[in-house]
Amino acid sequence: MKTSVYPGSFDPVTNGHIDVIERALKIFDNVIVTVGDNPEKKPLFTIQERIDMLKESTKHLKNIEIDSFSGLLLNYVKSKNSKIIIRGLRAVSDFEFEFQRALLNRVVDKEVETIFIMTKEDYVYLNSSIIKEMTKFKGKVNGLVPKIVEEKLREKFNKT
Ligand code: ADP
Questions:
Q1: Alpha-carbon distance 10 to 53, whole Å?
Q2: Three-state DSSP class for 5?
Q3: Ligand 1 pocket, residue 34 CB under 6 Å
Q4: Whether residue 9 has its Cβ less than 6 Å from ligand 1
Q5: In this structure, are strands 113-118 and 84-89 parallel, antiparallel, or unpaired?
Q6: Which residue in the list 4, 57, 82, 128 is annotated as catalytic?
Q7: What is the reported pLDDT for 23?
Q8: What residues pair up with 115 in beta bridges, in sequence order?
Q9: Predicted local distance difference test score (pLDDT) of residue 39
Q10: Which atom of ligand 1 is the closest one to the Cα of 87?
Q11: Quick one: pLDDT at residue 138?
Q12: CB under 8 Å to 143, separation ≥6 — which residues?
């Protein structure tokens, strides 16, 4: 059984993330999508809110688990009996950071492989920060994020 782990901030999940998850499910028996607890990133949504949005946006998919983690990703991956980390790739801008992280993880644990999945061309420019910025200034983000995310973003920014 090949279990893969897809870590990220998912603050909030976008259609780019969903596209990567769907592609990963074609390759691996199951995918654990896990929300990283990185307070340095000053997230807009709490871990629980991000988990809830991920659950709602992936309910059409089988063989998927939504979880969260803190601390070293490699330890989390091992605790899930997995040896595969999935990362999404967009434009070249992701490359250097992802390359460094993947190689460092390999130095620390050579058993764990990082697999990169390229997103659909429609989502190459998409990231969570752009979505937050657009919603804040009342821009339209339909087609870029799941419906539930659109609603939650609207709620969040209407309160502030
Ligand atoms: P992180 O804080 O770990 O970068 P993100 O939630 O921003 O968390 O991204 C999680 C993973 O998904 C990363 O590998 C990132 O490159 C990838 N990703 C984010 N947006 C997209 C997208 N539009 N298309 C493909 N991959 C993406």
A1: 9
A2: strand
A3: no
A4: yes
A5: parallel
A6: 128
A7: 97
A8: 86
A9: 75
A10: 14
A11: 85
A12: 15
Give residue 140's identity as a one-letter amino acid code: K
Q: 39: part of which helix (H) or strand (E)?
A: none
Mean pLDDT, each 10-residue run in order, the chain (160 residues):
96 97 97 91 94 98 97 96 95 85 92 94 92 90 94 85
Quick one: which of 15, 4, 17, 11 has its CA closest to 73? 4
Assessment of whether the complete model's pTM goes beyond 0.90? yes
Instruction: Go through the chain and tell me how many residues it has.
Output: 160
Kindly state the tokens that stand for 10.
């998912």
C-alpha 104/C-alpha 130 separation (Å) is 28
What pLDDT sits at residue 160? 59
Buried b (16+ CB within 10 A) or exposed e, 34-68: bbbeeeeeebbbebebbbebbebbbeeeeebebeb
Nearest-CA neighbor of 68 among 26, 8, 135?
A: 8
